[in-house]
Design a protein that fits this description.
single chain, about 110 residues, alpha/beta, five-stranded mixed β-sheet, globular
Length: about 110
């Protein structure tokens, strides 16, 4: 399972998270963002519009990304958060760490 990553600028990419981010593909996600971090990307907008499953392993991989880019003023934003992901975000209080936006475009404007 691979992640569709769309480059919006030299510092910003949009990652379409697909149906699931869980123990099965968290390592793939880490590999995908690692390449971009090495290329100097500092802002990651995660598009959860199609995501039905987000488990603790998946959430952990997002925190790994956050820990890696935050010293360089990098940001991770959630966009178009689906209902199942919203439940996880509320339960884990992840909304205190990652800003959420109704659309990818609004996230992009906020991070610009």
């Amino acid at each position: 399972m691979s992640f569709d990553v769309e480059t919006r600028s030299s510092e910003t990419v949009v990652v379409r998270m697909g149906e699931a981010l869980d123990f099965r593909n968290a390592d793939d996600f880490k590999e995908a963002f690692q390449e971009h971090v090495e290329d100097g990307v500092r802002n990651f907008i995660l598009d959860f519009s199609e995501t039905e499953v987000l488990d603790s392993t998946g959430l952990g991989s997002i925190f790994s990304l956050y820990r890696e880019i935050s010293p360089d003023d990098g940001k991770v934003a959630f966009a178009e958060v689906s209902r199942p992901v919203q439940v996880v975000v509320q339960l884990t209080r992840t909304y205190k760490v990652f800003r959420q936006f109704p659309t990818v475009e609004e996230a992009e404007e906020a991070l610009a």
